[in-house]
Amino acid sequence: MKIDCREIGGGFMVTVSYTEQKTSTGKDLEEDFSVALQQIIDEIEKNNNITQKELSKKIGINEKNIRNNIAKLKKLEFLQRIGPDKGGYWKVLMGGKIKNVIEPQKH
């Protein structure tokens, strides 16, 4: 946003301008979210010992988002951690396909 004030005659003029910002629709965010979740599942199916740091590098999102997405996958019962953080492994549940479960049914 830009504000410009100028003195003119016996008063002043204020001009307020802004640049319209591109925003995402809820559908875009849902699609990006389900894509990231599916990528996590796919990478874990390839290597069930993969670390969150490695997932972050492969998928291209930060480690905090990886942790949040893994928590979501665990809550939805698509992913389970077997054993401790160090020395354990990931187990993918329900065949690893999440798209139809997360996205609402289209009529």
As residue ranges, the low-confidence spans are: 99-107
Radius of gyration: 23 Å
Q: What is the overall pLDDT average? A: 80
Major pleated sheet: 2 strands, antiparallel
From N to C, what is the helix and strand string? EEHHHEEH
Ends apart, CA distance between termini: 41 Å
Structural class by SSE content? alpha+beta
Strand percent estimate: 15-25%
| Name given to the CATH architecture | Orthogonal Bundle
Tally of structural domains = 1
CATH class, please? Mainly Alpha
Residue share in helix: 40-55%
The CATH superfamily is: Winged helix-like DNA-binding domain superfamily/Winged helix DNA-binding domain
Number of helices: 4
Please name the CATH topology: Arc Repressor Mutant, subunit A
Keywords:
single chain; alpha+beta; Arc Repressor Mutant, subunit A; two-stranded antiparallel sheet; 4 helices; 21% strand; rod-shaped
Topology:
Elements: E1 2-8, E2 11-17, H1 26-46, H2 52-59, H3 63-75, E3 79-82, E4 89-92, H4 99-102
Antiparallel strand pairs: 1-2, 3-4
Helix pairs in contact: 1-3, 2-3
In short:
By secondary structure, the protein is an alpha+beta fold. The protein has helices at residues 26-46, 52-59, 63-75, 99-102, and strands at 2-8, 11-17, 79-82, 89-92.
Molecular structure report:
By secondary structure, the protein is an alpha+beta fold. The protein has a single domain, classed as Arc Repressor Mutant, subunit A (Orthogonal Bundle), CATH 1.10.10. It has four helices and four strands, in the order ββαααββα. A hairpin with a 6-residue loop joins strand 3 (79-82) and strand 4. Helix 2 packs across helix 3. Mean pLDDT is 80; it is low at 99-107.
